[in-house]
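FORM 12-B: Structure-to-Sequence Request
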């Protein structure tokens, strides 16, 4: 939009706006509402519904305010001051209502329907239509989450424009012409998208509805709370709506700095875990091989007693943390480990340790990270070691928006992702061989300088992440670390790492931390996850993590937990790891408490409690405070106390300096290099109860390059066996050019096929055999 300003008059009021502003937006600045259906602030103007017509002096007929740009001296009259505009809008509403069913009492949109509201405010008082209305078979499931009632559609094209402009999933389209025109999907092709739920929210009528929410509640029956999504590191703003103590709907909140007005389907539909009957809702102690529910007082007393004994005997005490904790919980756990347990043996990494990655991540968290805004303004965007569409979907939409605005997108990934459709370069080195590819994109980054953005995931081989970080330091390009889990950034900032303290300080730089905590810090570096697990005896505290299911070596994790003298688990569900604990302390889900969540940018966003905690569960920080009180240790007692300490530990951004370059070691092994990561929709714990999402989880599959498939005598669709050093699994093979030659892609967590049971996902080679 131009920096030049223009002044116009709307309904007798003057307003000055940037040149290029639409009339409908200028009216909004004055508080003048012009009715509309097709207009949406994040979609391109279309003028499909004709509802927003206004009278403009000098024009021979009314114009659509959603497609008309403001000019200097323009005089606009809306329906409030112009009989011409009022008559035009009334006529459009009359035409829209000709075939629209009058089923407001049963329509899910009732109570929040623009057609309902605008008909009352601006429409005719009666109908002249006396014929039979158009009817369709209803509802049509365009995928397991979204239902279509075609007779309600007003042909605003919001849904099809979203699919084309925003998500790039053109599975939904307007078919036929004239009176027969209707929204439809291609024959035998469901609306397969990670973002399909957005079309429900932006539909201005009840044409697109949620199967999960259908006939469940009315807007005036629900209470809304602001929240932040915790299911990936994008950190989308959400609105959680509850009725009678249960979450009935989740909507995308509008936040231009993060998610615009969108959310992925996991964030929108993946809330069933909160009310799952499988939740742990009361403290439990294992007695004689059985779990026995006890009071909080008894559970805390037993756990604290074993901690005291271990410390008195000099037995090892360690902490393993998940990467889905809220910021306050992560900080409280880090503080609890150092000041109450007296140990630096604390880690949030489940067996994927790398000194190179740690150095880059610590530097990225301690300094100024890339932001969504820097993506918007970028000329060149490098995406390496992450499938944004599956692992951070809203960042994917941000990169796609930037590409549509002219940015060049360069991808370094062993598996080609939907970013490749944006027209930039897509380099496909096999896992572990990404470092040489960095030099191939260096010239483009250097040319863009400060208007280049480098986005890195966790799946980069030796030398690649340090090369990308140093390229950013050298050129001025901004650097962003995008982890898969929603609380990973907060975990690093909080110091849930054997070498780090809060603020991503190095363990030897703890003077400020000691001052705030009023306690000395343990000496020496802590031990990583494998060493913590392999320590016999002692006490282990696990908070929101499942090393048996999610670690790189499930067998070793299981042996380690079985060998510990006492294991205290803070969790919501019974998992393969919590089953091996001695005390389980039930944790409140994120919508059940107040807190803060930092996304991949380091943007700390506050959220509020939407529903009451399940049973006797409570936030992690409160559980830790109770344990500290039982141990007579000084510790923050309230959420405000924790937040004040966290704020006092904030520090200015540190200078960006190069990290030690690591040599690029090309991988070697028998078979095909394993490419694996979790898809957005899988069989993980957080999908518990999300039946609609589970319905679109793919059957086990693997992807092979066409050249490898030909060499192995395997055809597309063949059943194959994936054979690794730990076992074998069965899948159906997809042959093409999506994955690098010499590699095979197997999603990490598929129904009946967990990759860690077959091979080490961080350095694995597997064989693919035709069955």
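FORM 12-B RESPONSE
SEQUENCE OUT:
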């Amino acid at each position: 939009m131009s920096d030049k300003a223009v002044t116009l008059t709307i309904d007798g009021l003057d307003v000055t706006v940037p040149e290029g502003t639409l009339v409908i937006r200028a009216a909004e600045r004055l508080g003048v509402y012009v009715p509309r259906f097709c207009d949406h602030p994040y979609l391109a103007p279309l003028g499909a519904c004709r509802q927003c017509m206004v009278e403009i002096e000098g024009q021979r007929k009314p114009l659509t305010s959603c497609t008309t740009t403001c000019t200097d001296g323009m005089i606009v009259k809306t329906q409030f001051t112009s009989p011409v505009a009022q008559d035009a809008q009334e006529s459009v509403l009359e035409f829209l209502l000709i075939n629209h069913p009058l089923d407001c009492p049963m329509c899910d949109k009732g109570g929040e329907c623009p057609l309902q509201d605008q008909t009352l405010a601006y429409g005719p008082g009666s109908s002249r239509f006396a014929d039979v209305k158009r009817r369709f078979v209803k509802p049509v499931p365009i995928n397991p989450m979204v239902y279509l009632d075609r007779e309600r559609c007003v042909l605003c094209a919001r849904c099809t424009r979203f699919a084309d402009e925003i998500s790039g999933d053109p599975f939904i389209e307007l078919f036929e012409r004239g009176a027969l025109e209707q929204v439809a999907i291609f024959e035998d092709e469901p609306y397969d998208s990670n973002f399909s739920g957005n079309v429900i929210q932006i539909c201005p009528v009840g044409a697109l509805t949620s199967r999960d929410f259908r006939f469940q509640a009315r807007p005036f029956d629900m209470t809304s709370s602001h929240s932040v999504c915790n299911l990936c590191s994008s950190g989308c703003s959400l609105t959680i709506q509850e009725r009678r103590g249960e979450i009935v709907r989740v909507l995308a909140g509008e936040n231009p700095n993060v998610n615009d007005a969108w959310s992925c389907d996991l964030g929108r539909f993946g809330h069933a875990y909160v009310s799952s009957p499988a939740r742990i809702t009361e403290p439990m102690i294992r007695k004689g091989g059985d779990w026995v529910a006890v009071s909080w007082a008894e559970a805390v007393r037993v756990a604290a007693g074993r901690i005291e004994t271990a410390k008195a005997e000099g037995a090892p005490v360690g902490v393993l943390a998940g990467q889905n904790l809220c910021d306050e919980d992560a900080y409280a756990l880090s503080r609890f480990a150092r000041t109450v347990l007296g140990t630096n043996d604390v880690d949030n990494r489940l067996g994927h340790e790398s000194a190179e990655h740690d150095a880059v991540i610590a530097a990225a968290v301690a300094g100024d990270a890339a932001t969504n805004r820097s993506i918007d303004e970028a000329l060149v965007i490098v995406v390496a070691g992450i499938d944004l569409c599956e692992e951070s979907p809203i960042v994917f939409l941000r990169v796609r928006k930037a590409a549509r605005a002219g940015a060049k997108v360069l991808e370094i990934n062993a598996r080609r992702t939907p970013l490749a459709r944006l027209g930039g370069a897509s380099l496909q080195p096999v896992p572990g061989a990404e470092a040489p590819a960095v030099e191939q994109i260096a010239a483009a980054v250097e040319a863009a300088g400060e208007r280049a953005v480098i986005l890195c995931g966790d799946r980069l081989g030796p030398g690649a992440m340090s090369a990308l970080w140093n390229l950013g330091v050298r050129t001025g390009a901004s650097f962003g670390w995008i982890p898969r889990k929603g609380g990973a950034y907060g975990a690093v900032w909080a110091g849930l790492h054997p070498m780090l303290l809060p603020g991503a300080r190095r363990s030897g730089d703890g003077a400020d931390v000691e001052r705030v905590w009023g306690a000395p810090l343990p000496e020496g570096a802590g031990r990583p996850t494998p060493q913590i697990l392999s320590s016999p005896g002692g006490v282990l505290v696990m908070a929101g993590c499942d090393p048996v299911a999610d670690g790189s070596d499930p067998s070793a994790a299981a042996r380690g937990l079985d060998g510990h003298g006492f294991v205290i688990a803070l969790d919501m569900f019974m998992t393969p790891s919590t089953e091996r604990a001695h005390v389980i302390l039930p944790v409140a889900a994120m919508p059940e408490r107040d807190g803060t969540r930092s996304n991949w940018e380091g943007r700390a966003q506050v959220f509020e409690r939407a529903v009451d905690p399940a049973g006797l569960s409570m936030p992690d920080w409160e559980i830790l405070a109770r344990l500290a009180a039982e141990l007579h240790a000084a510790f923050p007692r309230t959420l405000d106390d924790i937040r004040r300490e966290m704020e006092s530990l904030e520090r200015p951004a540190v200078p960006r300096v190069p990290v030690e370059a690591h040599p690029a070691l090309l991988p070697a092994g028998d078979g095909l290099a394993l490419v694996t990561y979790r898809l957005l929709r899988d069989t993980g714990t957080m999908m518990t109860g999300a039946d609609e999402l589970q319905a679109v989880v793919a059957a086990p599959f693997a992807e092979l390059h066409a050249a490898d498939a030909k060499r192995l005598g395997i055809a597309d669709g063949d059943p194959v066996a994936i054979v690794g050093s730990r076992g074998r699994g069965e899948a159906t093979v997809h042959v093409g050019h999506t994955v690098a030659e010499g590699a095979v892609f197997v999603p990490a967590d598929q129904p009946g096929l967990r990759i860690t049971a077959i091979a080490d996902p961080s350095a694995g080679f597997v064989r693919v055999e035709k069955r």
